[in-house]
Amino acid sequence: MAIFEGRFTNASDLRIGIVVARFNDLVTTKLLSGCLDCLKRHGIDTSQTSTQLDVIWVPGSFELPITAQALAKTSRYQVLITLGAVIRGDTPHFDVVVSEASKGIAVVSRDTGIPVIFGVLTTDTMQQALERAGIKSNLGWSYALQALEMGSLMREIE
Ligand code: INI
């Protein structure tokens, strides 16, 4: 029996793209900084001159899938992370944005074979979003860990 699981010790040379939604950037910039902190502490070069990490900004979470798809097709990245914050109180089309972002990201991941981490917070209030983006914990850190794990796992099973 073979058991495959992602490791964090063989992930420091992964090429990673992070797509970040500017909508609710009070939240998404915090998710991004948690994400970068985790990647840096796992050996990823997060400097401005890094050749293994790119950060791509888009207007909102709705635009995450098409951008992740374009990036996945370049073959430059072994794993992608999408970061967004959709807050129910802000919009009557909460469900539309969440549904398109989540379905779209899942489709990109499956169609391209590149793991795309779903780092979109969906909350009822800005307070809840901020609590998950640094006030209590920072889920950006977890999304980065999941990216390292999936990037590593794909290497193991390919
Ligand atoms: N985009 C978000 O990322 N979060 C939101 O809460 C949000 N709200 O509230 O509307 C949101 N809307 C913008 C959307 O993602 C697109 O950028 C826009 O519709 C243009 O396509």
Topology:
Blueprint: E1 16-21, H1 25-41, E2 53-58, H2 64-73, E3 79-87, H3 94-112, E4 116-123, H4 126-132, H5 139-157
Parallel strand pairs: 1-2, 1-3, 3-4
Helix pairs in contact: 1-4, 1-5, 2-3
Briefly characterize the structure:
The chain has 158 residues and is α/β, with parallel strands linked by helices.
Kindly list the characteristics that best describe this protein.
four-stranded parallel β-sheet; alpha/beta; single chain; 4 strands; globular; 18% strand; 158 residues; 46% helix; Rossmann fold; binds 5-nitro-6-ribityl-amino-2,4(1H,3H)-pyrimidinedione
Describe this structure in words.
- This protein has 158 residues and is an alpha/beta fold.
- The protein has one domain (16-50, 58-138): Lumazine/riboflavin synthase (Rossmann fold, 3-Layer(aba) Sandwich).
- The chain has helices at 25-41, 64-73, 94-112, 126-132, 139-157, and strands at 16-21, 53-58, 79-87, 116-123.
- A 4-stranded parallel beta sheet has the order 2-1-3-4, with helices on both faces.
- α1 links the parallel β1 and β2.
- α1 crosses α5 (139-157).
- It is globular, with a radius of gyration of 15 Å.
- The two termini are 17 Å apart.
- The mean pLDDT is 95.
- Residues 21, 23-24, 59-63, 84-87, 90-91, 93, 97 line the site of 5-nitro-6-ribityl-amino-2,4(1H,3H)-pyrimidinedione.
